[in-house]
Amino acid sequence: MWWLFGALALLLLGAALWGPIVSNVEHPRYKLVEQSGDIEIRDYAPMIVAETKVSGERRDAIGKGFRIIADYIFGDNTAARKVPMTAPVTQQASERIAMTAPVAQQGEGSTWRVRFIMPSSYTMETLPRPNNTAVELKEIPVQRFAAIRFSGMAGEDSLELQTKKLEIFIRAKSLSPVSPPTYAFYNPPWTLPFLRRNEVMIEIAAAN
Asked: Could you tell me the CATH number of the domain that includes residue 180?
């Protein structure tokens, strides 16, 4: 029976490592401005995103939005060409919500922006056009974010807790938030919880 236990151990090890391995894709470029524990202030370079808007509960919206944009990068475009996957996939409430509102209370009926960041080697001219009109390509200018990183399953409770920590940091630093929280997910769904990378990000006004 020892071989059975050995095979099972190898299978579990493979499952543990597969998520981080396939998550080793291009990430958006940024300059680290300041770090305090798990919280960072970052200046992001301009980027292009593929965006779709989805209504409903947050968890359902991220799944539906992911599938819509995944179809685009896997070839549902005018060139019938695949676009390399990047990380993270981001999600943000499209309407302005008070900074003190709990994530769980954004609730049913909210509209969410789900975005894939396009590889930096592409321009608006070289990216294939989406066939699905629900997918829009957008140029995003330089932005400054406060971001908190955490592991685990990123359920509603953990997102709410991390958002509150980030808001406390922003207030303590007298920073000016200019957007609702953005949730960033870096790993495939089969990644073991302790190996996941999740972030809550809030855009802040850059210092003059």
From this structure: 3.20.80.10
